[in-house]
Amino acid sequence: MNLAIKEMKKNKVRFLILGSIVFLVSLLTFIISGLANGLSQDNAALIKDLPAGQFYMNKDADETYNLSKIDSSTQNEMLNKQKDAVAFSIQMGFINDKAGKQQSVAFVTATDSPLFENVKHEEIILDSSLKDKGIQVGDTVTNNQFSGKFIVKGFVEQKKYSHAPVAYISMEDYKEIYRVEEMQLVFAPDGDATQSYTGLQAFSKNDFLNTIPSYSAEQMSLNMIVWFLVVISGMLFAIFFYMMNVQKIGLYGILKAIGLKTSKLFKMIWTQMVVITIISLALSIALSQIFNQFAPQGMPFSLSLATTTQLSIVFIIIGFIGATISGIQIKKIQPLQAIQQGEV
């Protein structure tokens, strides 16, 4: 370890450049990961906040939830069989605020369940983001397809669907707006794939999230960028240490000639990799968490410590692999041949 630290002190500029690049790459990775999580919440918080379980929709809907209609007899059978199950529907729409301005919302209605807000006829509960649009508790809002008026009874935090704030309304009002009688979906908490019903298709939570328009494509694109950056960081370590090793073949030959084992040289590279990675990650984690706290209002950004920890561990593993690959040439060095080349 002393040898590794001494070399880092001797070649400060080289290691500072590598550390700076790792810091920037890891910071960019954390920021993009935070945006991916934020967009995921903005797109599907309503579903993601539900506990693990099974979603059911009509097989004929071709995995498109807003085309699904669950027969009332089947729905009653499921709700009677599974006491915690809930039938619900989601449709995109809009409300007119007291100034007559239209606000996009995702109307949600459900049977009695603690998993969804319970609202009465002509009442509405909205996502809190609509407070920023000037809507307050007690306001009256309307919908062009609804004959009555909704009274805003309250707000809920972080309930979004398809990037629109959720609006909970009663089943009676929902049926009037969309001229339907059937619910679209049934959710069974703690249900498993072995529970099947005739004419219905079952989905796990992750499978159901992928049926939401744009969710899968959006997450796939951002996650692909995150993993490309992680791989690039590993390649940086491999290239940097490879170039360092090429320049020090003669030195390694002398060290081997005086009895220093190859394993000691590998430990030196690993120590340098760990020191650079930990310092760079510490700085990028600190900055990304500060950004997480002070991100502009309205920006979908969410970076949890669990995600940060997972990515940090992956960075260290990828860095270890990159540094180890670069060190394979050390194992092949013949002391006498390296010294004769005079490449110290």
Summarize the structure.
This protein has helices at 2-10, 12-48, 72-81, 171-178, 205-209, 215-247, 249-257, 262-294, 305-326, 328-332, 335-340; strands spanning 53-58, 86-96, 102-110, 123-127, 140-141, 150-156, 160-161, 164-168, 185-189, 200-203.
Q: Can you put this structure into words, describing what you see?
A:
- By secondary structure, this protein is of the alpha+beta class.
- It is 51% helix and 16% strand.
- The chain has helices at 2-10, 12-48, 72-81, 171-178, 205-209, 215-247, 249-257, 262-294, 305-326, 328-332, 335-340, and strands spanning 53-58, 86-96, 102-110, 123-127, 140-141, 150-156, 160-161, 164-168, 185-189, 200-203.
- Strands 1, 2, 3, 4, 5, 6, 7, 8, 9 and 10 form a 10-stranded mixed beta sheet that branches.
- Strand 5 (140-141) and strand 6 (150-156) form a beta hairpin.
- Helix 8 packs antiparallel against helix 9 (305-326).
- It is elongated, with a radius of gyration of 29 Å.
